[in-house]
Amino acid sequence: MLHVLNHPLITHKLTQMRNKETGTKDFRQNLDEVAGLMAYEISRDLPLKEVEIETPMGPCQTYELAKSVVLIPILRAGLGMVDGILDLIPTAKVGHVGLYRDEETFQPHEYYAKFPKSMKDSVVMVLDPMLATGGSASATISLLKERGCKSIKLVCLVGAPEGVKRVEDDHPDVDIYLASLDEKLNEVGYIVPGLGDAGDRIFGTK
Ligand code: PRP
Ligand code: URA
After folding, report:
1. What is the pTM assigned to this prediction?
2. Cβ–Cβ under 8 Å, residues 34 and 47
3. Which of 109, 136, 206 has most ligand 1 atoms within 8 Å of its beta carbon, as the pocket-test mutant?
C-alpha cells in the first residue's frame, strides 16, 4: 500500500531539496532531517511486546519494541537517509545493497550486498530517496525476500507513478512510504519535477 506523508515539516524540507540553488551541505542536511521525520511517522505501527521492569518505585508492566529494525540503504543515495533514522532507532542494524541503473536501459545492476546475519524476523526498511522506474527498489526487495525477510517497508522521498506501480505489482505485500508522489518520469528516466540526481546532489559529484 502507498502512504504519502504530508507532514508540513517534511514538505517544507523537501522543497528546499528540490530547489536547484540548494548546495550539497544543505541538501544533505535536509535529507537527514526528512528521513528522521519519515521514520517517526513510519514507526507508528511497529509491534510492541509486554514486559515487566522495575522502576525506582517498584514493578511496572509496560511495553518495548517486539522486533529489531534493519535499515537497507540502496547505494549510493540511500546512505543519505541512514543517520537521520539511526538518531531515532539507534539499535537498528544496517545492511547495504549496491545498485546502479544502466543509463540507457534503466535496468539495475547489483555490485554489492552485505546484510546483518539474522534479519528474517526483523522489520526491514529499504531506503532510497528516489523511486523512478522502481527497478532498483523491486530488485532490492527481491534480494531481501530470498533471504527470508517478511516485513519490508520501502522508504523513498520522491516517487513517480511508474515506480509505485512497479513495486505494487511485484511486491503487493510491501508498504511504500513517500514524502511526495510526483507527476511522471521523463524520457531519460528522471522524476519530474523531482529533485535531479539524488546521489550527485548528496555527494557533490556533479
Ligand atoms: C538512483 C536512485 C535509485 C535509482 C532509482 O540511483 O538513487 O537507486 O536511481 O531509479 P529506478 O527506480 O529507475 O531504479 P543511481 O542508479 O543513479 O545510482 P547512485 O545512487 O549511485 O547515483
Ligand atoms: N535517480 C535519481 O537520482 N533521480 C531521478 O529523478 C531518477 C533516478
Report:
1. 0.96
2. no
3. 136
CA–CA gap between residue 122 and residue 140 (Å, rounded) = 16
User: Is residue 103 scored above 90 in pLDDT?
Assistant: no
Instruction: State which of 130, 157, 178 you would mutate to test the pocket of ligand 2, scoring each by most atoms of that ligand within 8 A of its C-beta.
Output: 130
Please report which confidence band the pLDDT of residue 12 belongs to, taking 50, 70 and 90 as the band edges: very high
Q: Counting atoms of ligand 2 from 1, which one is nearest the CA of 198? A: 3
Q: How many angstroms is it from 173 CA to the middle of ligand 1?
A: 22
Yes or no: say if 81 and 109 are a contact pair by the CB < 8 Å rule.
Answer: no
